[in-house]
């Protein structure tokens, strides 16, 4: 498995699907995606609204690598090492969105709500720099511009990076099993409790043998034997 992914994996996968004859496994390995996700991109079921990005022009993949992969389906493409490394900047406080991109935020919120419903409002706020009332209005279709909104990937809009989006999705996925477990521990309704008690009572009646009735003769015989032992 390729350990280094291109800067925009989904956009790169869209371009490779449209412009090469590489297999789904090769594209998935290069972009660090699941082969089924690449197949969904090819079928038009995923990555809608994402514009393909040429990894050759972006300096992340050599044309010779694509030719090798097209000639050999078992070949695994290698990402080119970046010529310069930019240190990660640690952002503090709320995300700042340039004025020129602020009108794109509702479209990005709608895309996140539809494609990643597991994300919490706080995560969406971190990704696109919005507010909770705006997210709620878009969820409930009460936003003033709901009729003209178009769901668009926030990475494509430049509101966040693919790494930031993937990180928030992974956080939401890790929290999902906890929610499922808590849901399984809900209180039973009165009807369910009554039904369970009735089944337990029937099971106890079926396990009660008829020979458990008290036999007076056996009791007196037992008492006589105890008296003899004491004498």
Please tell me the overall pLDDT.
Answer: 78
Quickly count the helices.
11
Class computed from helices, strands and strand pairing: mainly alpha
Helix content: 40-55%
Shape: flat
Which residues sit in consecutive blocks of at least 5 with pLDDT less than 50?
179-183
Tell me the distance between the termini. Answer: 87 Å
DSSP strand content = under 5%
Instruction: Give the biggest sheet.
Output: none
Q: How many β strands by DSSP?
A: 0
Radius of gyration: 32 Å
SSE succession = HHHHHHHHHHH
How would you characterize this protein structure?
With 231 residues, the protein is mostly helical. Among the domains are: 9-71, no CATH class; 99-178, no CATH class. 54% of the residues lie in helices and 0% in strands. The chain has eleven helices and no strands. The chain has helices at residues 9-19, 24-31, 35-43, 63-71, 105-115, 121-128, 132-139, 154-157, 162-184, 190-207, 216-230. Helix 1 (9-19) packs antiparallel against helix 2 (24-31), helix 2 crosses helix 3 (35-43) and helix 5 packs across helix 7.
How would you summarize the topology of this molecule?
Blueprint: H1 9-19, H2 24-31, H3 35-43, H4 63-71, H5 105-115, H6 121-128, H7 132-139, H8 154-157, H9 162-184, H10 190-207, H11 216-230
């Amino acid at each position: 498995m390729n350990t280094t992914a291109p800067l925009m994996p989904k956009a790169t996968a869209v371009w490779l699907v449209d412009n090469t004859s590489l297999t789904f496994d090769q594209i998935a390995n290069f972009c660090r995606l699941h082969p089924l996700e690449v197949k969904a991109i090819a079928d038009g079921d995923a990555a809608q609204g994402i514009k393909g990005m040429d990894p050759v022009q972006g300096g992340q993949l050599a044309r010779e690598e694509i030719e090798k992969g097209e000639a050999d389906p078992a070949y695994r493409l290698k990402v080119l090492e970046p010529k310069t490394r930019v240190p990660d900047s640690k952002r503090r406080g709320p995300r700042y969105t340039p004025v020129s991109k602020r009108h794109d935020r509702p479209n990005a919120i709608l895309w996140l709500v539809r494609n990643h419903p597991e994300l919490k409002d706080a995560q969406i706020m971190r990704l696109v720099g919005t507010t909770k009332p705006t997210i709620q209005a878009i969820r409930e279709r009460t936003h003033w511009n709901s009729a003209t909104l178009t769901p668009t990937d926030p990475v494509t809009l430049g509101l966040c990076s693919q790494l930031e989006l993937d990180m928030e999705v992974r956080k939401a996925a890790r929290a999902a099993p906890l929610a499922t477990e808590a849901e399984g521990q809900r209180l039973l309704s009165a009807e369910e409790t009554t039904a369970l008690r009735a089944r337990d009572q029937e099971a106890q009646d079926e396990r009660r043998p008829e020979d458990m009735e008290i036999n007076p003769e056996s009791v007196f015989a037992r008492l006589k034997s105890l008296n003899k032992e004491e004498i």
